[in-house]
Specification:
Alpha-Beta Plaits, alpha+beta, globular, 23% helix
Length: 190
């Protein structure tokens, strides 16, 4: 008898249904980092929450990562480190999907994505394409190219591209959309 069959029997004895869970990991929906200029020099507590309290942070993109590593500090598993581009990098092998980075980020840049999906949109800007492009060279400009590929799971909402992971069954569509994205904000996780 397999482990899953045993779990199903235990669930039946308890009067519940066994649901197989898919491992999820944290994903950062920003790729700006040091590519985005500062609007002003922030001289305060080096923490994203504190920096966000001052005019929404120092970055020209008001939706993007502030780079003060609050997520790194709250991760109990050491799964997040800062990159040379001043962006958090999540180690998929260490991430336990505890949700602490999701809750700690004042810009709401993290989400938990099933590990089986390695493509994601690395932008959170809801500004118009023109405004996004002026603030960030790698932001989503809501051009819609990703939504037009065959079997596309992408959709646009509030000037931003999203992936419907429940319908992301065609790897070729994800890869094609990533290749065609003019700002390269659709990334593939290592």
């Amino acid at each position: 008898m397999s482990t899953e069959q045993i779990k199903e029997k235990i669930a039946a004895l308890l009067g519940t249904k066994f649901e197989k869970k898919v491992k999820t990991i944290a994903v950062l929906h920003c790729n700006g980092g040091s590519k985005v200029k500062d609007r002003f020099i922030y001289q305060g507590i080096e923490d994203c929450v504190s920096a966000d309290l001052v005019l929404g942070g120092q970055k020209q993109c008001r939706w993007g990562c502030l780079g003060f590593a609050t997520c790194v500090k709250v991760c109990p598993f050491g799964a997040i480190v800062m990159s040379k581009e001043n962006l958090p990098l999540v180690d998929k092998n260490k991430c336990k999907a505890c949700n602490k980075c999701v809750k700690a980020c004042p810009k709401h840049l993290f989400s938990l994505v099933p590990i089986i999906h390695d493509v994601y949109v690395a932008c959170s800007s809801h500004d118009s394409g023109k405004e996004t492009k002026a603030a960030c060279p790698v932001g989503c400009i809501a051009c819609g190219i990703c939504t037009k590929v065959k079997d596309s799971p992408f959709y646009l909402k509030e000037s931003l591209s999203y992936i419907d992971y429940k319908n992301a069954t065609h790897k070729a569509a994800l890869d094609e959309a990533r290749a065609k994205c003019p700002t390269k904000c659709i990334l593939k996780r290592d």
